[in-house]
Amino acid sequence: MTDNRTWLVTGAGGMLGQDVLARLAQAGERYAALDRAALDLTDADAVSAALDEHRPAVVVNCAAWTAVDDAETREDEALAINGDGPRHLAEACARTGAVLLHVSTDYVFAGDAQEPYAEDAPTAPRSAYGRTKLVGEKAVLGIERGYVVRTAWLYGTGGPNFVRTMIKLEGVKDTLDVVDDQRGQPTWTVDLADRLVRLGQAALAGTAPAGVYHGTSGGETTWFGLTREIFRLLGTDPERVRPTTSAAFARPAPRPAYSVLGHNRWQQAGIEPIRDWSESLSCAMPVLVAELQEGNP
């Protein structure tokens, strides 16, 4: 253990939250883990009481409403979790002096850029989900020790995600039609968890300025390109994956056509950005395949 400080992880039962806990344990940090059942972020009094009980030096907020399509018709409910929740945490952290690391999303941008979005690029969300996440960002950035880490295209163990779905479909589908007109950065939760812990440590050391950081992998690809690489790593024919357009999979919420984020801010914190997406995927695949072979849903 590095010292007597404690970290508090909210949304600890989720895919990212589980990896943050594992990374904290690896780093020898003491932590308290609160899942959705243990802490209702929409309850300001409960949030305040949780910080008083645990007295964390760092709070990592992995809790979120992530049902992008459902948010279109249930925006008030999404806002309570994505907007009010971070605000309650920010108010409690400002009162206690804790560092707040809040995980946000590429959906705060319009998704129509031609080059990677810088951390200070103008936001212009086009979906209810994006709007609610932006409200949360503003609350966190309004406090002195507030950090927003935007991520995108997350995959890992312990929860449903695109990569796990494609691994499963490879075994039951002769061919797959996958969208080729959305560009982004597939990001392994293990890599993001590592950067969150290192950022929190740097914040405590006074070497990381507060503000926005982009926690996505390097490089870029499409869902089609990602799926072909998944098939290649599985040892099967990537030609079984065929390109299609977003129009073939109409959804209630608009998907960003371009979700590539820039990573320049990490240099100010003395932390290297996450490696290239393809390198991460090659490391993650054996872990994901093993999880599925064990029968986890």
Automatic annotation (TrEMBL):
Keywords in alphabetical order: NADP, Oxidoreductase
CDD domains: dTDP_HR_like_SDR_e
Residue ranges constituting the RmlD-like substrate binding domain according to the UniProt record: 8-282
GO molecular function: dTDP-4-dehydrorhamnose reductase activity
Keyword Iron-sulfur among record annotations: no
E.C. number(s) listed in UniProt: 1.1.1.133
Entry keyword Isomerase: no
Regions that span the bilayer: none
Origin: domain of life: Bacteria
Pathway assignment: Carbohydrate biosynthesis; dTDP-L-rhamnose biosynthesis
NCBIfam families hit by this protein: rmlD (TIGR01214)
PANTHER family, per database record: DTDP-4-DEHYDRORHAMNOSE REDUCTASE, METHIONINE ADENOSYLTRANSFERASE 2 SUBUNIT BETA
Function of the molecule: Catalyzes the reduction of dTDP-6-deoxy-L-lyxo-4-hexulose to yield dTDP-L-rhamnose.
Family membership noted in the UniProt record: Belongs to the dTDP-4-dehydrorhamnose reductase family.
Protein name as it appears in the record: dTDP-4-dehydrorhamnose reductase
Natural source organism: Streptomyces doebereineriae
